[in-house]
Amino acid sequence: MACRQTFRWITASVALAFFFSPLAQADSHCPFCTMQGQTLIGEVNQANLVLFGTLKNPKLGNANGSDGTTDFEIESVIKDHAFRGDKKALTLPRYVPPDKDGKYKFLLFCEVYKGKLDPYRGVAIPPDSEIVKYLKGALEIKDKTVPKRLEFYFNFLENADLEISNDAYKEFGNASYKDFQEAAKGFSRDKVLAWLNNPETAAFKTGLYASILGHVGQEKDAVVLKQLLENPDKQTGTGIDGVFTAYCLLNKKAGWDYLTGILKNPKKEFLFRYAGLRAIRFLLEFRPDVIEKKQLVEAILVLNEQDDISDLAIEDLRKWQVWEAADQVLGLQEKEFFKKIPIVRRAVLRYALSCKGNKAADAYVKKMRGTDPQGVIDAEELLKLEQPPPAK
What we know:
alpha+beta; 3 domains; 6-stranded mixed sheet; 19 helices
């Protein structure tokens, strides 16, 4: 492995900015979490040596090309390597600017390359952080099942150290719904209720916490979820799809009536209705035992008539192969917004191309080949990209 040339010291503010960056979501991941990707324990597994301690005696490099040096006093060893021996301090082969106020200790990730120490990443940690306890605990359970590991991470979701709490949240983001569902049986209902009722709880965690409550809560807890949904400051935030879903899980009739009532009102904020659409996707894909597919499709067809979200509704009907809705989808040709919004027309065309054997759909495609042949070719190419690769 080539020696890395850069050394990244990440302060708490920089780390937080990273954690809030948008990440692509995959179907196999927690559907109500906004973070996935590399976790601290994943980085520990990849490193040769991981230490926790304090930086001392930084010395600048010289004109001969030296990068300088900095001493690292070791307070705890997270992952050991023979290179360290029994040393209580190591000299890092580069200058690191001093922390004059002594506000931070550091988590140090190192490689040992050709007998030399290569410290390639340092994370600034508050002195009172439980990061050592957290990482050592995570190492102890790393070979257990995912549900068992989530039980451990659950207890750190609201840790005072953002490095820890966000990392624990990311562990949930990496888990499948099946594993989450199994793990949720052992989570504390009281803790989750307290987090959801606490105005200081980070908004991006709302979806996960609501989802947990949907699995461990009681029917009477649905009032907490309804209050979140009726809070104007929450309606356009992240995780509201998880609140909609949890409401349906705890009180199917009341939750579903509330959700469909929002979808039927085009005056509601787009993001609020879109969260409702995401909740329907979840119920269809992961919990078909809660609401019948017929009802889910009927709710989607309501959105089919709304100009700002119609294209998304049509795409879902196509992906779910709801060909019995062809009349409603093709009937949008009579709507004024159909003529004005190209993205809706493209969605209808993709639906018609996929709905093979339907006379009305075939007739529409034939008409479009005559009036917009390039548009049809482009749509067909996009549909090909969605096809899974052939089996080897």
